[in-house]
Automatic annotation (TrEMBL):
Pfam families: TetR_C_33, TetR_N. InterPro entries: Homeodomain-like_sf, HTH-type_TetR-like_transc_reg, HTH_TetR, MT1864/Rv1816-like_C, Tet_transcr_reg_TetR-rel_C_sf. One of its GO terms (molecular function) is transcription cis-regulatory region binding. This is AcrR family transcriptional regulator. The lineage of its organism: Bacteria, Bacillati, Actinomycetota, Actinomycetes, Streptosporangiales. Residues 6-66 form the HTH tetR-type domain.
Length: 242
């Protein structure tokens, strides 16, 4: 593939990501996307074979950015705190890019989005997209660390990771609809206690779980305090988290 051709392909994916967040999935159509990059509608078919292929490419890129966002969470001496910070980073991505997040999981699909799944928690059945596997793999790694530290009892770390993913995924979908009220209230009064109860059910000491939960919030606040403030772009809408 030539550099020009590859550039057009990437521009179409980027335009799709942006239009998805700005206007919703109904904005994703061949004519509109081609117009965004100054190309003909044939560009969509040349690079992706049609809109279904472009939807898949957008979904893969969204998962790749999701994985990069989660990977920014550093390891500390407390694996449970790290696990909870990962959950907060997950929520941050989903709340900053709600349309993108819904597309990734086939909740609000503009067309026949191919399944990226199968059963990620069953050995030998990885997702059809490597980007999905890479994102999910971060979670069982932290679960193993918590088990090795004696914080939660030993079990299949992949299955435990699936339980945690189920919890945070359900939470962010509910929060994104506004059912938990003002910003941050759900984290403190719904997600936080839910996480602590799950950790205790997995074998952690309640006091230790509560300490790690509090520390995770402090770590996130500290990271936000030192992060550089992005310069606003004149005449442009705020961009979602990458």
């Amino acid at each position: 593939m030539s550099k020009t051709s590859a550039g057009s392909r990437e521009k179409l994916i980027e335009a799709g990501m942006r239009l998805l967040e700005e206007r919703g999935p109904e904005a994703l159509n061949a004519r509109g996307l081609a117009a965004e990059i100054g190309a003909s509608t044939m560009a969509v078919y040349t690079h992706f074979g049609g809109m279904a292929g472009l939807y898949e490419a957008i979904g893969r890129e969204a998962f790749a950015r999701f994985e990069r966002h989660l990977r920014q969470v550093p390891d500390t001496e407390d694996p449970v705190t790290d696990l909870l910070v990962l959950g907060l980073a997950y929520r941050e991505f989903a709340m900053a890019s709600p349309q993108r997040y819904r597309l990734m999981f086939g909740i609000a699909s503009p067309g026949a989005l191919p399944s990226f799944g199968h059963d990620l928690t069953a050995e030998g059945t990885p997702a059809t997209a490597a980007e999905v596997n890479d994102a999910f793999a971060l979670l069982p790694r932290l679960v193993r660390r918590a088990m090795n530290a004696g914080r939660i009892r030993r079990d299949d770390p992949v299955l435990v990771a699936g339980q945690i993913w189920c919890m945070i995924h359900g939470y962010v979908l509910l929060e994104s609809t506004g059912v938990f009220g003002q910003e941050g209230r759900g984290v403190l009064h719904i997600l936080g206690p839910h996480v602590i109860n799950l950790l205790v059910g997995l074998g952690d000491d309640r006091a230790a779980a509560e300490h790690s939960a509090g520390q995770s919030l402090l770590n996130v606040e500290a990271a936000a305090a030192v992060a550089p403030e992005p310069a606003p772009r004149r005449g442009r809408r705020p961009r979602p988290a990458q």
